[in-house]
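Work Package 3 (structural annotation) set out to generate three-dimensional models for the target panel prioritized at the project kickoff. During this period the team completed the workflow that converts sequence records into discrete structure tokens, so that structures can be stored uniformly alongside our sequence database. As a representative example, we reproduce one entry of 180 residues exactly as it appears in the project archive.
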Amino acid sequence: RGFGLDWLPVLGDKHLPLLTHVHIRQEQPYGDDTPTAHLLPLDAPSLVSVRLYDIAASFTSTSIRKLILNGRAIFNSREWSLLDVLSRLQTLEYLELEMRPSRLIKWSAQADTPVHLDRIKHWHIYGTANADLPTLTHYLPVSVPFDDLDHIYYVHIEPDGWEHFVYAFGPKLCRPSMNA
């Protein structure tokens, strides 16, 4: 982890066979709040744990077990699809997404069929109204039994649009095993 270093040119287009964990925060220039999508093709076949801030990555590793993505513009990038990335991570056990896009995410443009993560145990999805979590759950349903999950969270993180969130998630969370 380095402060002030632009890691994208350092890691991009390099084969990193020994890299197993990565935690990168792509800093914006001081005072610049313009959402920017930084794309990173990460060729690290041994990668098992990924934490990225404002970086949209694609992976050669199919053994990633932990993925944390926080961002704004990355979720609206035409060059990158979260659902496509997740469809390739069949060993994923821990997923945490914090999505604050500046405009509505069009999940239907990213996938035709739902993506199933059959090994998931920890599921935290945070988003604003523009993240459209109710539609995301259609394309990224919880496909393991709820009793097999350690944690499942869906969080609406802004005051606007909460009615749509509650209307969509209310029936899903009214199960005897759920603490909603």
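The two ends are 37 Å apart (CA to CA).
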